[in-house]
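User: Hello! I'm new to structural biology and keep hearing that structure can be predicted from sequence alone. Could you demonstrate with Glycosyltransferase family 2 protein? Please show me the input and the output so I can see what each looks like.

Assistant: Of course. The first part below is the input, the amino acid sequence of Glycosyltransferase family 2 protein. The second part is the output, the predicted structure written as tokens.
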Amino acid sequence: MKLPVLLIAFNRPHLTSVVLDSIMSYEPSVLYIAVDGPRHEMDNIAINEFKEILSKRNFNFKLVTLFRKENLGCRLAVSRAIDWFFEHEDMGIILEDDCLPNKSFYRFMELMLIKYNKNENIGIISGNNFFYNKVHLPYSYYSTVYTHIWGWGTWKRAWLGYQSSGISEERIEEIVNSKFPNKVERCFWIENVKLANSGKLDTWDLQWGFFNWEKNRINIMPCKNLVKNIGFGFDATHTKVENSKLNQIETNELDFPLIDPPNLIPNPLLEYYTRRIFVKISFLERIKNYILSKMEKII
């Protein structure tokens, strides 16, 4: 079953064109393209260049576009694009203009979104795995409390109720403190969710992660990385550091048929590796998880 895809873009037509090629090879049931409005004339030139690229493509599926006249910024442009998408669809794949999936990503999304469609304990299906070369997983996917959105899918039922602002600071502290045992990590999430919620940090994804924590959901991640972020550089919104370790992570094709895990309980070792992406880990915790990793290899 082919799924609908939402492509969210702005002012990087050549990157967007590469991601568009990937989507066209998949041939979704419907392709929705949402583009934020220009801030200045250079943005306008870039957006018109992307319109020209679109006009030269032959689509074998339905195409629906939304080109905004005014600039909303990252937080509102992305969240309102997803709102718009789910006004028309019940589930689907969401890609930003710098997230390039491999071929197995689309099949993984199809299988997982359909399989867990009615499971309200699951918030998203992610295409990311940032440490697949460090931990060998015997199963095709696993569960996590973290929300990775460099190529992902979800359902209308999961998105409904999302807020990009207006969350009380007390509520943020309550949920984060109840979710994470590591003090450094709690401080990291509380600070950054508050900044995003207040608009001081122009993003939408921290609030999305918080919303899933608030609903006590878990998320699905593949045992291999299925999406590469090709947008690192000076013109990126958030991924400006070109020599970032995350920029060096390549993709690997997933094997089918999928091997289901015996349960959907997050693995502490895998959560530890994800936590290391965001916060500095103490020496004692590093030792503890090093021992745990050796024990899992023996088992």
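User: So the tokens describe the shape?

Assistant: Right, they're a compact way of writing down the 3D structure. Reading them back into a model, for example: DSSP finds ten helices and ten strands in the chain.
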